[in-house]
Amino acid sequence: MKPQSSSLKASLEKAVSEAEPNLELAKEFLQGRGLLHATASRFRLGVSGSSSDYPGRLVIPSIAPEGNVVSVRYRSLDGSEPKMLGLPGQQTRLFNARAVAQAGDTICITEGEFDAMILEQCGFNAVGVTGANAWKGKKHYPRLFQGFSKIYIFGDGDTAGRQFAKDVFDTVNGGVMVRLLDGLDVNDAFLEGGADYIRKLMGLDDE
Length: 207
Hints:
The chain is an alpha/beta fold and 207 residues long. It has 2 domains: 6-86, DNA primase, catalytic core, N-terminal domain (DNA primase DNAg catalytic core, N-terminal domain); 98-201, Dna Topoisomerase Vi A Subunit, Chain: A, domain 2. It contains 8 helices and 8 strands. Strands 1-2-3-4 form a 4-stranded antiparallel sheet, covered by helices on one side. A hairpin with an 8-residue loop joins strand 3 and strand 4 (84-86). The longest helix is centred in the C-terminal third of the chain and has 16 residues, at 186-201. The chain is globular and about 50 Å long.
């Protein structure tokens, strides 16, 4: 990807640092998703203020392994559409790419930021692909996962999600597809049965 300019890096950091103190405004929303305050803080979530181009939205930064913010997405808290907004001209980035550097020989790949954060909260290293159609082919993303012996792949329980899981499975080595029930995503599965249910879906309940 094209290197980011210093001004863009500064503006992304500013957007995140200004939103972080407002995290409490999203307390009810995050509790509804089962996301702990400690998890939200670790991922530097916040709520955008009135001076933002997208006021009153949950700010979800994507943080590089080096610790700098490389992209920001804005999630509505009141159900208004569109639910997710990105900055104009912003390149699609892998959410929580630092997990690639932090993981051992096992990692999880899932759709979206919340599913990745939930898996991390459950004790797994996980990255989120921001959309069922956002897996970057046979070149860029697959290369990041060449050093892993086992890659758990979570696609949402719908047609697009299953196609996403297949696309990932077909381009990585060591892939294990984790099947979710119809209509469910990782976050839904966690709310239904907690971390133990996630482990069961992964075939790890006896370990």
